[in-house]
């Protein structure tokens, strides 16, 4: 069974929601990324999204754009990212989702990518600029390797298109909380919880919500409705701030991830919402 499926199947109707953490591979360097992955897992992350550095990350805000630039300046490639994951798979046991854009995968070769990703222990891929209508470019290979293609839906996904996306989704649905790029925000958009509930009514797949989550309270609010919460830019901010002091960096990242996970453990079990 794919690790993503096993995670959510095992979670069942418990009152603990999944924490998904994103970081950019190679920022500030590949060796520190390896240590960050271990720290993030040990601090309570249930799924880790490993960002593939790309020169034109159109869905990402300034924080992750700068992280991608720093990684690219170090010469980080997709092949190196896959090699890093393969080398860590004995110690990193949580599901890993590769997050990125199609150009590096196309250059690498989609068939080769799917094979090497599976060999490395990748459980899912999220390709921001490969829409559902064109996902067969990659899924014809990743499906055979048992890798889930994680699909994005947003507040502007409606009607038959939304239904079609959901019907073919794998692993979990990634609900984008804002109509904009990634980046930590101070508050949740008005009506977001109601929008998430509507999507959950349409699917039996888990729904994880991301883009903009910056603190434990926001995570707790989203976790009251969603099955998981995704945090990226707020963590990458910490990497940018403390990247030159590894000891301080690992401490800050570990503490931040732990605080988010604590916020997703609820004292009183609640019935799972419809979906």
Word description of this protein:
By secondary structure, the chain is α/β, with parallel strands linked by helices. The protein has one domain (3-263): Aldolase class I (TIM Barrel). It has twelve helices and nine strands. It has a nine-stranded parallel beta sheet. Helix 7 (136-142) links the parallel strand 4 and strand 5. The radius of gyration is 17 Å and the shape is globular. The two termini are 22 Å apart.
The CATH topology turns out to be: TIM Barrel
Relative helix content: 40-55%
| Count of distinct strands | 9
Strand content: 5-15%
Report the principal-axis shape: globular
Query: How many H/I helices?
Result: 12
Query: Strand order across the biggest sheet?
Result: 5-4-3-2-1-9-8-7-6
CATH superfamily: Aldolase class I
Q: SS-based structural class?
A: alpha/beta
Tell me the span between the first and last alpha carbons: 22 Å
Mean pLDDT: 90
CATH class: Alpha Beta
Low-confidence stretches: 268-275
Indicate how many domains the architecture comprises: 1
What's the helix-strand series? HEHEHHEHHEHEEHEHEHEHH
CATH hierarchy: architecture: Alpha-Beta Barrel
For the CA atoms, what is the radius of gyration?
17 Å
Largest sheet composition:
9 strands, parallel
């Amino acid at each position: 069974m794919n690790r993503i499926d096993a995670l959510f199947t095992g979670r069942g109707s418990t009152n603990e929601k999944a924490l998904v953490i994103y970081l950019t591979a190679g920022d500030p360097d590949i060796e520190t990324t390896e240590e960050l992955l271990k720290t993030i897992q040990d601090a309570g992350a249930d799924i880790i999204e490993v960002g593939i550095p790309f020169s034109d990350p159109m869905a990402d805000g300034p924080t992750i754009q700068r992280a991608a630039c720093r990684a690219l300046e170090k010469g980080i490639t997709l092949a190196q990212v896959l090699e890093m994951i393969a080398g860590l798979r004995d110690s990193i046991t949580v599901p890993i989702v590769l997050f990125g854009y199609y150009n590096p995968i196309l250059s690498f070769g989609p068939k080769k990518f799917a094979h090497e990703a599976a060999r490395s222990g990748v459980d899912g891929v999220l390709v921001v600029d490969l829409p559902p209508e064109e996902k067969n470019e990659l899924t014809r290979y990743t499906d055979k390797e048992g890798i889930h293609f994680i699909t994005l839906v947003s507040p502007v996904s409606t009607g038959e298109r939304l239904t079609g996306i959901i019907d073919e989704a794998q692993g979990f649905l990634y609900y984008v909380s804002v109509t904009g790029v990634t980046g930590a925000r101070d508050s949740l958009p008005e009506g977001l919880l109601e929008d998430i509930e509507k999507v959950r009514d349409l699917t039996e797949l888990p729904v994880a919500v991301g883009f903009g989550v910056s603190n434990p309270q926001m995570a707790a609010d989203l976790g009251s409705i969603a099955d998981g919460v995704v945090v990226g830019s707020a963590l990458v901010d910490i990497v940018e701030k403390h990247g030159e002091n590894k000891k301080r960096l690992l401490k800050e990242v570990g503490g931040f991830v732990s605080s988010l996970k604590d916020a997703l453990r609820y004292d009183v079990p609640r019935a799972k919402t419809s979906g």
